[in-house]
Structures are given as C-alpha cells and as structure tokens.
Amino acid sequence: MPGLVNDSPRNVLVTGASSGLGRALSLWFARRGARVWSAARRTELLEILATDSSARPGTIVPLALDVADIPSLRKTLLEIDGQADGGLDVVIANAGVGGEANPRKDTFDRVERMIQVNVTGAAATLATVAPRMAERGRGHLAGISSLAGWMVTPKMGAYSATKMFLQVYCEGLHLDLKGAGVQVTCINPGFVKSEMTAKNKFKMPFLLETDDAADRMGRAILRGDKLFAYPWPMVFAARAARLVPDAVVARVMGKSGVKPASSARS
Fold first, then answer.
1. What is the pLDDT along the chain (266 residues), one digit of tens a residue?
2. Could you count the other beta carbons within 10 Å of the beta carbon of residue 195?
3. Residues 126 and 174: beta-carbon distance below 8 Å
4. Which of 105, 110, 164, 216 lies 20 to 30 Å from 227, alpha-carbon distance?
C-alpha cells in the first residue's frame, strides 16, 4: 500500500489542533475522508471542533494531549497507532508556542517552555511513530516549522532556534527513513492568522487566512514535498535577511516593528 499516504490518507493525527493551523489541518483532512485524531490540551475546543458541520460526524476524534509531557505523549501515540486500522498514515507535529525572550532579563522560563514544546515535544511526536511506520513500509511524518527559523531578529532568537531545529530534524528523518518507504515533510509558513498573531501590534506582511494556509500545507503533504515554504515574498525576504549585517537587521526590525512569523498552537 505504498501509495496510501499520497492518494487518500485514512488515519491522521494532528497536534496543537485546538486552534489555528492545527484546527484547520484537522478539518482539511477530515473533509477528504480521513479519520483525524485532533490532539491538544484544551479539550473544550476540541469538542467544538469535532462537531464542525463541514466534516462528516465522527471523522474528528478529540484527543487530550500535552506534547510537553513526553512519557504520556509517547504512550498515547503508540496506543492510537495501534487502534487505527492499519496504523497512522500521517502524523503532523504542529503544536508550538512562540513569543519574545529578552536575554537581558530573566526569561528562561519562556525559553524552557519553547524548547519543551517546539523541540522536545515535536521530536518526540515524530520519533515515536517513525519505527512503526518504517516497519509497515509506509507513512508520512510532517513537522510544522516557521520561516522564523531562517532569520534571527531581536528577542526572537530562542523561538527561531527551536524552529530551525525542527527543520533540520525533519531533514535528518527524511534521509534516514526514505529507504523504508516513510515520507517526511517540513513546512515553513510565513504569517498566518492565529491566536498568537492576533495579538501582534505591528503590520504583518503577506498575512494568510488560516484556511488558505492549511490548504497549501495539506497539498504539500499529499505531494510528498520534502520542504515547503510559503508565501514566496516572505521566503525571499527570510533568505535575504541571512545576508544582511546584524546591525542593519536590528535597526530595520526595531523601526518597523516587524518580527518573524510565529503562531501559538496548543
């Protein structure tokens, strides 16, 4: 069944599904006939998601899950993989937290939380199911990173670092698992409407509607893209920023108020 994932995934799991991209991705796959385990901490929002009229009743299964609780996360993922008919076809590590962490102040609690969720939680989500998929000879792992990983701006170094980790980790998984029939996709979105970006007080260039962003991401996963970054103007800007001197970046970002794309998904 090597074409299962690209043709019509039956069993999908999405973390950080209570809002934003995770919620939209859950609905995107459910509308295409998949059974979707939508995981997050805020179960009340998951229950609402499960009753969304745009998806067939019963296709979205609410799943209480905190990706920072690694033992519980791994146990739950293995249980779901065992319960799903034929195992999980697609696992999307989407849960993440963002925000500033000013190193001139004691903000390590924020840094630690970002590492727990964006690094350890994301890696555990993908690594837990990878051996099962490799044994079956099929499956698809997807990590939702960010264009913020391609550029570092004031007070956002910790967040950018966590997102770059996820991209590199996914690239490693791709190399190690492609011979086993398991596909791996890393997605780097720009600014997307979400609970996090709604709090931003600056103008966000090329801001995408959540459903539009999820559609692009879902199609990239089904195509089997190794890396998918969008929208292209933000991709170009992020790449160009790596060539600009630090002083210029700090001056421009400070004056414009523009910060790298981020979204909270929990």
1. 333 344 679 999 999 999 999 999 999 999 999 999 999 999 999 999 999 999 999 999 999 999 999 999 999 999 999 999 999 999 999 999 988 899 999 999 999 999 999 999 999 999 999 999 999 999 999 999 999 899 887 888 999 999 999 999 999 999 999 999 999 999 999 877 655 544 444 455 566 889 999 999 999 999 999 999 987 778 887 777 666 666 665 565 554 444 444 444 44
2. 13
3. no
4. 110
- If you write DSSP's letter for every residue of 2-47 in order, what string do you get? TTHHHH--SEEEEESTTSHHHHHHHHHHHTTT-EEEEEES-HHHHH
Domains of the chain (ranges; CATH) run 4-256 (3.40.50.720)
- How far apart CA 265 and CA 213 sit, in angstroms, is 14
Supply the pTM of this predicted model. 0.87
User: If you search the block for the tokens 């492609």, which residue do you land on?
Assistant: 178
230 in catalytic set = no
